[in-house]
Amino acid sequence: MDNVFVEALVRALAVGTPLLLASLGAILNERGGVVNLGVEGMMAVGALAAFAVAVAPGGNLWLAVLAAAAAGALLASLHALATVTLRANQFVSGLALALLGTGAAGLLGKRYEGAPLFNKVPDWNLAGFVISPFTVFALLLAGALAFYLNSTRSGLTLRSVGENPAAADVLGVNVGRVRTLAVLAGGALAGVAGAFLALSYRASWADNMTAGLGWIAVALVIFVGWRPLRAILGALFFGVLYYLQFRLQGNSPIPTEVFSAMPFVLVLVVLALAGLRGQQGDAPAGLGRAYVRGER
């Protein structure tokens, strides 16, 4: 029983790692008032960039991770340009970037399909647990982000921009700069989530590698109430669902398709409930609204 529990925990942590990284990035975006539905695309380009650098002659794995973060941030910069500078609809921009990112990654990644990755990021053995360094980073980052948002001056500034950008502007805060930096940081984390898939979890490249994880991460932010530490439990929860999908395959009268669909069903439920609540609760008051100085 203990072995089964440990296996379930380790597998859930592994599957939950990209969800946690991507959702932490989305929390940064949305705490600053910017909705980012392009996480799926940013994860995809991050995965491709990481794999391309890793399989290149003399490729370095940690340089590959940096390339993934840069690719995610680059795609996020388009979202920042559209939503912060040009004040375009945040939902439309995010959806467009999700399609652009996944499409571009699928097209440019054709040459890497089937290519071997001889050196994956090695796992660590911590107190008997075999765990990816990406997972350790994600867990530590959740704690650091919670501290940043609640206990630092710049974190409180970010939250004020998301809650009441006009009031923050009056106090001398550059709303556009804060929001842009938050979007770029969120995109970089989404790219690192993609790097985990390409360099650690699957250690390969395949079209549609993200398989909807980015969309689940977006919903996970709502599910955990925009709280970084709660995101750990949310990522574990979805990780357990994915683990059950494989564990019970052929060993349960319940069709495995039920477990395969469960994360996406929960995403729809979370979004539906959020719609019924009218984005109330813990959502930043200025979420999804472009800020124009002088407008109420």
From TrEMBL:
GO cellular component: plasma membrane
Chief localisation class: membrane
TM region positions: 6-27, 34-55, 61-84, 91-109, 129-149, 181-199, 205-224, 229-246, 258-276
PANTHER family per UniProt: ABC TRANSPORTER PERMEASE PROTEIN (PTHR43370:SF2), SUGAR ABC TRANSPORTER INTEGRAL MEMBRANE PROTEIN-RELATED (PTHR43370)
Protein name: ABC transporter permease
Subcellular location: Cell membrane
InterPro entries noted in UniProt: ABC_transp_permease (IPR001851)
GO MF annotations, alphabetized: transmembrane transporter activity
Keyword Cell membrane in record: yes
Source organism of this protein record: Deinococcus puniceus
Domain of life: Bacteria
Assigned keywords, A-Z: Cell membrane, Membrane, Transmembrane, Transmembrane helix
Membrane topology: Multi-pass membrane protein
